[in-house]
Amino acid sequence: MSPLNTPPALAPVINDFVVKFANVNGSGSASANSMFAKAIFRMGIPVSPRNIFPSNIQGAPTWYEVRVSEAGFLGRRGGQVELMVSVNPQSMAEDVNSVCPGGYFFYDNTYPLDFKLIRDDIHYIGLPLTQITNNTFTNPRQQQLFKNIIYVGSLAHLIGIEFSALESIVNDTFARKPKLIPPNIQALQLGFDEAKTAHPDPLPLQLQRRNKNDGKVLLEGNAACGLGAVYGGATVCAWYPITPSTSVAEGFEKYAKKFRVDAKTGNNNFAIIQAEDELSAIGMVIGANWNGARSFTATSGPGVSLMQEFLGLAYFAEVPAVLIDVQRTGPSTGMPTRTQQSDILISAYASHGDTKQVLLFPATPKECFELTAQAFDIAERLQTPVIMLTDLDLGMNEHICDELAWDDTHSYDRGKVLSADELESGARFGRYLDVDGDGIPYRTIAGTHPEKGAFFTRGTSRDEYAAYTEKGEAYQRNMERLSVKWATAPKYLPKPVLTERDTTQAIGVIHFGTSHEATREALETLATSGHAANDLRVLAFPFHDEINAFIEAHEQVFVVEQNRDAQFKSLLVNELEINPKSLISVLHYNGDPISARVIHDTIELHLAAPVSSAAQNRG
Amino acid sequence: MSFYKPSFRHPDSPTNQLGLTRKAYEGGISTLCAGCGHDSISAAIIQAVWGLNIEPHRVAKMSGIGCSSKSPNYFLNKAHGFNSVHGRMPSVTTGANVANRDLLYIGVSGDGDTASIGMGQFAHVIRRNLNMTYIVENNGCYGLTKGQDSATADEGSQSKKGKINPFEAIDLVALALELGATFVARSFSGDKQQLVPLLQAAMSHKGFALIDVVSPCVTFNNHPGSTKSYDYTREHVEAGAVVDFVPMAQEITLDQVKGSTQKVALHNGDSVELSKLSDNYDPTDRVKAIQTLHEHKSKERLLTGLIYLEPESDNFHDILNIPDTPLNQLDEKTLCPGSDALSQINLGLK
Ligand SMILES: Cc1ncc(C[n+]2csc(CCOP(=O)(O)OP(=O)(O)O)c2C)c(N)n1
Ligand code: SF4
Question: In what residue span(s) does the Pyruvate/ketoisovalerate oxidoreductase catalytic domain sit (chain A) (predicted)?
């Protein structure tokens, strides 16, 4: 089966390549694959793994793409990969094609490779994975699981993963089930030895220990959100299962069980309610927050669609609520297990009438943690829903980020809630009075005071004292106060982050959420070819003044987003009242996380265009 | 506007054990049509809560949308109220209740609100045995949107315009029994004698208590041909288990047990005294209750009273194992694990 021509050789590289694994969903490859990425992390080398999985449970192809980047670029690079590990006959043709010329195709040669899969410009590495497992392990499930561990062992030889890093992971993973340690180590060793015998020379793709991960952790965004909710003081989590947000509730449960079970009584200082649907989930969240308990839900696009009516109620009746929307592709069911940033408009203007909702855009698991915790402060301070927009890429993949930190002097901002004493000594309480001129009224919690402070929460129009009214002036006064509150909001929201690379301010790039890493890489690459650009990463809506200033200061402004219709651009145009032509979209929406290549190439194409349409059309 | 409220109260107005007159339990002036059954239910709620010696501000009044759902405006002014969205009162109440288990939760809903748009949430709040009193003000029609048939309108019942309802009715009491509700009762807004003790028993029940109250809509569904009119209901009503509610404090003095009366102890020590329709009827037997209900229905009789009671059951708070201290009163020290714990977590993520 050796090809007719000798394939080109890859230039040797250290710590800079992409390895992709092709597996069968449900075959237990996830732990082996994550062991691979984690070992690289433990070697101190920046690494970013991504799951690409189908929306079924078993049988269909699933991929795991691991980017190794000495330079610390953690977004998707894009393009073909240097090394493909193919353990799925179903996807082999596609997998062969995803290897770059000179790259490597690693496969199970227990069965012969179809000649149609032979390319003469790539290298083939066959190892009898099935045969080895079948000879070594008797139980069929074990045979399936250890096959995956064996290829990880082989890679240790081929690309230089430190065996001790793998061993340490096995030891940590099975600390509570020590019986499983020896067979896992044995499988790793089998793979290692087999690869060494069959392919004594390691590949030109090599890993070498560095110390770039000091002070870093490897974490999924969803788990970070769950943990953030525990730290943020959430006591009630009401949710309904949906990919890719389910693991937020699971994360909350895991950490709540760890930290919130009363040692004396065994009681739970938290409640998790799996609701009957998303309408109910958000209803519970609103009820709990109304009653003074911090509460949240996590969902994805279809859930946000269902929650619209309630979000309008919470906006208008001014009830805090926290909603974590882990976005996936739409419209409708779209591709449930692929990523997108396409719930921006439905979230910003969630519900009928003149409604506006506060949004947060985390870009890393650390920000998922911090912004989730902060979201409760913001929601209570502003007495309104806060919708955090993450996505599948951030939520369901492990990302390297700075260690999580918590300031023990922080105290929860419960906002303007009147205590019994304050009610007792205060003037007449008016639930919707703008006492401080910031548009934020005072609220009271049920049961606080026997005589004072009770009011009726409703979605219908009312006056400053919460009395029902259909008087146009009263309605309008209320709506105007809500606008004042909206104008106050940025004060409590995280500011955009500016990275300056260009003093001439020719090119500006605006982005948010998970496009962050890929944008950074694209802009650093552009800078080396003479197109330095500044970028502004937006963390919250309503927008801070800095965003308008940034747009005004730059000749050409690109907006990077992962949806077809440039929703974020629409929001900028609409809210900042700017000419749509002053912004150029960089769009990506095939369901994969955006890559540095797409951003780089789109911007470069525009810059190369004869007429700078954006610059001309400003005004 | 159906009742006028003079602010004057006779100095000798009776007070409850808290020293409060009934006035302390009143609400705003009703804007419902004069004669609407819902107003009588509000009056019964006032009487019931007053009689139970519950401080008004320790009650949370929850509702959905509809004339019925507006009615929490018209009782217990000193209690917080939440008029949510159509059919979704159960979820809001669930959240509120989980946040603070110490209040008495009274949910008021309509038959449109509960049996149509809110059917899902109704079923699930029963399933969870949330500790609340759920009152359906059942008029067989949509009052607030001007008289359309609701899902509880009986087959063959006539609308105001003379249209005959061709569909089978949903019987919320039968459904609640089927779904495992631990307290199920039915009453009539025109029968305060029966309704007040039923409400008191429901409010004292630790778990989900449904009271389906036939509450005629005088404007759209109170004509000959309607099976939810005052006249029809009065003619067809049959009291099943007639109850007397016995609060704990009176326990010692009260021993007027009549011939066919049975006493059922509630979770909190209070009890319900039942005068049974027939000696065969045991309101603690779910299967019997379902059967009796159907027998009455086939005879076009409306069975009222306490239809089913499970005196001991785990309510939602027990099931969730949440502490006696309401979740909304836990402080930051209890809730936030702090930076040391986070350092440990960081170590585990390497
Ligand atoms: C989502 C939604 N759909 C429809 C309505 C219109 N609506 C208001 S009240 C009502 C029916 C109320 O009927 P019911 O619950 O029986 O109460 P009643 O007015 O008879 O007391 C409807 C359909 C609404 N407010 N919201
Ligand atoms: S329309 Fe019917 S239900 Fe509504 S207030 Fe009038 S009588 Fe009552």
Answer: 26-193
